[in-house]
Amino acid sequence: MRLNNSESCYVCARRACGLAVGNAHRRAWYCEMCTIELAVEAINMNLDPIEKQTIVNIAEKAGKEVTLTGEDVNAFIEWVIQEYSNEMRNAVNNVMETF
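Given the sequence above, the corresponding structure tokens read:
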């Protein structure tokens, strides 16, 4: 987790440069490449209900389908990104069909 981590940029996960936004209990550090504006936007972002359910769906799928070993980390990350795209697309399509 990058929140309250002075070593990691909250926006991009690169090494932080020593500057942060937020308050004493919830601080987002950022790197030289990311601006204060990006850090402020990122710390204020919240997942909507569809995004939250998508994450739950992928986690359930991963628990059933994925056995992760050290050399499979890149493949796992690619799989998560692809599954997130697919799940979000399906969720949005399902919501749109109700209108």
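Residues 1-45 form one domain. Try to locate this feature in the token string yourself.
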